[in-house]
Write a structure and sequence with these properties.
Layout lengths: L1 E2 H9 L2 E8 L4 E7 L17 E3 L5 E3 L4 E2 L15
Parallel strand pairs: 1-6
Antiparallel strand pairs: 2-3, 4-5
């Protein structure tokens, strides 16, 4: 069983993009992508993606369970306003 908090941490973790083409410099290089939340919604709907594509681009389903908590703390993923 996978804890839901682990899936959130993975989604919001910084990602490195290789061979990113920058429209500002017109060059390719490394880029970093970070996702943060600016404001919290009154209602939040989440969809767990349990599918992936194999080497032949065929959709496959992960055979795992995700443990869902009753409450979710998203404060660690909010943009720091300082």
């Amino acid at each position: 069983m996978i804890p839901f908090e682990k899936t959130l941490s993975r989604y919001f973790s910084p990602q490195t993009i290789e061979d990113f083409h920058s429209p500002a410099t017109d060059k390719k290089g490394l880029a970093s992508k970070t996702i943060k939340i600016k404001t919290f919604p009154d209602l939040l709907v989440l969809q767990i993606g349990k599918f992936y594509f194999d080497q032949a681009w065929q959709p496959k389903k992960y055979n795992v369970e995700v443990e869902m908590p009753n409450e979710i703390d998203l404060s660690a993923f909010k943009i720091d306003s300082t």
